[in-house]
Amino acid sequence: MTELRTRLADYSDLPRLAEISRSTWEGSDYLEKVAARWISEGGLFVGEVDGQVIGAVKVTRMPSGVVWLEGLRVHPDFRSRGYGRRLVEFAGEAGRSAIEAGEGTAMEFATYVHNSESIAIATDMGFRVVEGFYIVTRPGIPGSAARVEPAGDVEKELAAMGGHLSAGWTFALNTPEGREWLLQRVDALRCGPAVFLAQRSGNCYIPLGAGLEHMGELLDGVASHAAGRRLSEHSVIVPEKSRDALGRLFERGYESWDELSGPNMLVFSSSGA
Question: What is the pTM of this model?
Fold first, then answer.
């Protein structure tokens, strides 16, 4: 295998990152949309082979001492050659260094249940599943005239959720710091008694407890909000314990990427030891 050189990404890498993104998950990948922001934040690394960018990985400092690993991508021409593992190992070493320096307590990441290569690499590195979620997607622009308004204070609803809080494919620990981080990235909304979160920079919706108890109002509110944003598709994310909500989602036209035998969105964690 040709030597892999890893460095911080810069704006000149954006065209190549876009090319890699468009070749991932049948063109539905999000890397192209967030790459410029990730470069400005810092922590986005690219891997080069013979001077050509062939992959990327992001190392993000999260609240409560979590080092979050995300955005692992490898160009299709360079897959199955060990470069993905090298990028994950590089990110893992950065996380371990932060933990050893007292700047972190754990490394975490989330991935799709059938991303077998990433899961195998992470398992070898000591990561284990700590929580599961379901993500389902509805194509098209839904029609609904339901009234949606700001929900106000949702601290109690958030605190009653599980150990991790979703902001799309990035999850924060359910701590005061994690809840503050989340609320900087989502809008808390209400449709009647149903309360839910809307991802500001993406197309994901996350029901809170009151939303899951009032699925009709929840789905009307999500449809109305998604239609107002002219989203060509949007997703709803629910925790594993709320699997019973999936039936109502499927009735409303939501789809899973594959047949569901369990959560299709997995959160992994490692102490870095």
Answer: 0.92
